């Protein structure tokens, strides 16, 4: 009971602090965003368009965004995440995408690397698939700001993760993570 009360107080303090946080709004960058959007091999659905408008409206505010995107498998949630990550990166902010499985992490990494790499955006994968040496390089790159987007498993919750300027955290399948992690 005491642990639950202590944890609840920690969460209350965290959310109280979050409410007063301010940040620079994320502005669109028409040229690169349009190029990435045109590279999408499908037509956006009306639901995707609405979700993108909502996400970008939230990102244009000067306060932290907290948005849940819900949809069945294959309905384009990853494209929304990719475009939001791009918006953060063009505003000189790093993005972390957290995935519950190594397979999903790898799929996201390949997609982000292929779609955004040709525009000079650096994406890295941080999971058990990387060697210790590669993981250390990625951590160093995150800290220096060289890596724009990191796609990771639970490994992102390690104590030794430092970002130069993180601006967006995307949690894929958020129900698979605990309250403390989120």
What does this structure look like?
With 182 residues, this protein is an alpha/beta fold. It contains six helices and four strands, in the order ααααβαβαββ. The chain has a four-stranded parallel β-sheet with strand order 2-3-1-4, with helices on both faces. Strand 2 (123-126), helix 6 (132-144) and strand 3 (149-152) form a beta-alpha-beta unit. Helix 2 (30-38) packs antiparallel against helix 4 (77-90) and helix 3 packs parallel to helix 4. The longest helix is centred in the first third of the chain and has 19 residues, at 2-20.
Quick summary of this structure?
This protein has helices at residues 2-20, 30-38, 46-59, 77-90, 102-116, 132-144, and strands spanning 94-98, 123-126, 149-152, 166-171.
Shape: globular
> Rg to the nearest angstrom?
17 Å
Distance between the termini: 22 Å
Which class best fits the helix and strand makeup?
A: alpha/beta
Give the strand tally: 4
Helix percentage range: 40-55%
- Annotation field: number of helices: 6
Which labels suit this protein?
alpha/beta, 182 residues, 4 strands
């Amino acid at each position: 009971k005491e642990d639950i009360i202590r944890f609840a107080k920690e969460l209350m303090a965290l959310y109280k602090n979050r409410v007063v946080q301010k940040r620079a709004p994320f502005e669109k960058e028409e040229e690169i965003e349009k190029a990435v959007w045109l590279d999408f091999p499908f037509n956006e659905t009306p639901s995707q368009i609405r979700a993108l408008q909502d996400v970008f409206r939230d990102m244009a505010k000067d306060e932290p965004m907290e948005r849940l995107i819900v949809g069945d498998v294959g309905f384009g949630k990853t494209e929304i995440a990719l475009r939001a990550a791009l918006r953060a990166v063009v505003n000189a902010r790093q993005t972390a995408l957290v995935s519950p499985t190594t397979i999903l992490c790898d799929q996201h990494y390949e997609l982000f690397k292929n779609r955004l790499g040709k525009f000079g955006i650096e994406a890295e994968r941080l999971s058990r698939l990387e060697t210790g040496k590669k993981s250390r390089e990625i951590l160093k790159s995150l800290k220096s700001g060289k890596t724009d987007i990191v796609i990771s498993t639970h490994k992102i919750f390690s104590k030794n993760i430092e970002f130069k300027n993180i601006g967006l955290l995307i949690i894929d399948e958020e129900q698979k993570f605990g309250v403390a992690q989120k």
